[in-house]
From TrEMBL:
Residues 45-292 form the DUF1559 domain. The keyword Transmembrane applies. This is DUF1559 domain-containing protein. It holds the Pfam family N_methyl. The chain crosses the membrane at residues 21-44. It comes from Tuwongella immobilis. Gene3D superfamilies: Glycoprotein, Type 4 Pilin. Keywords: Membrane, Transmembrane, Transmembrane helix. The keyword Metal-binding does not apply. InterPro entries: DUF1559, N_methyl_site, Pilin-like, Pre_pil_HX9DG_C. It comes from the Bacteria.
Amino acid sequence: MPMRSDLLPIGRRVRRARTAFTLIELLVVIAIIAILIGLLLPAVQKVREAAARMSCQNNIKQLALATHNYHDANQVFPYASAYCADPGLAGCMSTTSGPMQGTNYTIYHALLAYVEQGNIYSLVSPAGYGGGPFDRTVKTFICPSDPSHQNGKCSTPYGGANAWAGTSYGANFLAFGNGATGSPDYYNKMTSFSDGTSNTMMFSEVFITCGNSGDLSILNGSLWADANGGWRPFVCAGPYKSGVANWESCLKFQSNPRWMNNCDSGRSQSAHTGGVNVALADGSVRFVNSSITDITWANVADPRDGNPLGSDW
């Protein structure tokens, strides 16, 4: 019969294998893991934001190239928008002679076919409210960093906006409309930008849903198919976007505002820390730092003011 190990002399006792961590060892391991996660999380978030920012830049670049391709095909840029979205309402349709005359579209209807969205463009008709397929989301129109939408649609139920697809990029009204008269259905050409294409903003980032009330039920936004005031997908429109008399034409953008609490729908907005992505009329894309002055931003937005840009550009 084998001898029990506890009866063996001390020097000959068999050591039993340990089958678990002690409590102290377990706590040490958990603490080390927590420290590592704490160190890695900011790095992961930075990588994620860098990827999202790059995607935003790629999208806005596609919009700039699409407008150039449209210009090549039509010898004019598309207009900013019609006067309103309802085809049955007198005065809604564009009356200006040009390729979009007689429509209730925005600039984004015209660009659909140039951003590989021919399937949606085939559904567009001036007989439809907002041109028809206003509920169709377009990936190119949405910045991954934009926190204000629900699967590409506006978050607020105000005016039924949550049934509409949005865009995270606002077209510059001063480049695609008539800033002097407020006419949104005005056709500009490449030669219209007397300040130079590299000094003129075409598109900048915006939030799909935006407001400062903190009440989700009464916010505004940027809807790619909506020509109605307050929802129009453009920036630098002064009172023609906000409806407020004597509103300055292009107030400086907001960097990372809270979209329900301190978001100004009359401005550009960016979810990125420290600046905003813009597409220029020469087709290039630039990340504009938040340190830019109000006057330099306003000068970049206006393609005809003749003002030199500051050193902060």
